Amino acid sequence: MTDHQDADAIVVGAGIFGAALANHLQQAGIGRVVMLDAGEPGRGTSGSGAGFVGYWTAGYMPVPSTDDYALEDYGVRFYRSLSERGKPIDYRGNGSLFVATSEAGAPRVAKMADHPLAPAGTRALDPLETAKVTGHLLSADAVTTAVLHPGGIQISAGRATRALAALAGAEGVEIRSGAPVNRLLADDRGVRGVRTPAGDLRSRTVILACGAWTNELLRPLQAAVPIARVIASRVVSPPSGVAESSPTVMVPEWNGLWLREHRGGITWGNPDGYAPLSAYADRIAVGDHPRVEELVDAMSAALGPRLDVLLNGRDRSVAAWTQGVPCYTPDGRFIAGPVPEVPGLHVMAGDNEAGVTHGPGLARMVADLVAGNAVDYVDPSVYAVDRFERRDMTEDEILNAAPEYE
């Protein structure tokens, strides 16, 4: 290190983005890496994630991209490798199942079987086959058609994040929990470090991986990125004999319902339990974990009767629930790379509720950019901060511009 730096790189945030990035920075030979978080690794939005990872670009996500597909494939292989190395991430390779429950919903699901990016082994299922592959979690009478992506996997998002943080620590990354960053330090030459309650940390390389709180640090530098923060709810239902071998279930026509096995029961959710963070700004401070019970009640009321028909007598009641704050972008793609206005400052933001899937691949890309390595597996310009004509969009404008599912 030169110029009295305290670190060769500082990572702000220890969610899935930050923890994966810390690992990749270390592998890229960056030197001394320090990762800071206001709480504990994996206890924020990443810890509230449902933990299903798949090839969403192959017909499900509204923005098809071979770059996103490369990130998805990397994520699947990355978590499989972690599991094979004995890391406790609750890995299961059960696939992703896309289900239609009506003739109106069938065309969107059916076309996924022939999508050009469909993973190997993708196949259409009739109602009886659908019931069987889920261990009779789903009722055949409620299904019109389905498509199985066998490459999809399931993990515990919180445990995976904590495992990555532990791995980073074992490889030399300094992890400081309970260390919020109050402001970025910068001058006309670029970033110079961060200010924390315990004092300043100096580095010419800082990467923001702090999700919903990214712009709280960027705005004083006139360098905000266009992300809209949304509270997202996830329900955990009591054990009801759900098979561990069941794939993740996605029902696009039900406003993007998803559900998967969780400790013998199911965990489930959809945007009926979501709301803009701004609607609750007076109740949630910067960095706080949201606890807005009325959103869970609304989701349960909207989905409950339909779940009673779809699920084969399984319990879908609310035994527990959690919430996180995913961030959406105007074009449905992630934001990752250098911040043009501030040399040495990078950002990973705009998870579009798919950060667990794409986080490892984005971390690899950003680590290579920081290290000055060639990036030939994705096009970094697809995720560049400066691709937007406007970065001062309001959160309402961003949500209105975001691409919708078909």
Automatic annotation (TrEMBL):
InterPro entries: FAD-dep_OxRdtase, FAD/NAD-bd_sf
Protein name stated in the entry: FAD-dependent oxidoreductase
Residue ranges occupied by any FAD dependent oxidoreductase domain in the UniProt entry: 8-369
Cellular component, GO, one term: cytoplasm
Pfam families, alphabetized: DAO
Gene3D superfamilies associated with the record: D-Amino Acid Oxidase, subunit A, domain 2, FAD/NAD(P)-binding domain
PANTHER family on file: SARCOSINE DEHYDROGENASE-RELATED
Signal peptide: none
Organism listed in the record: Sinosporangium siamense
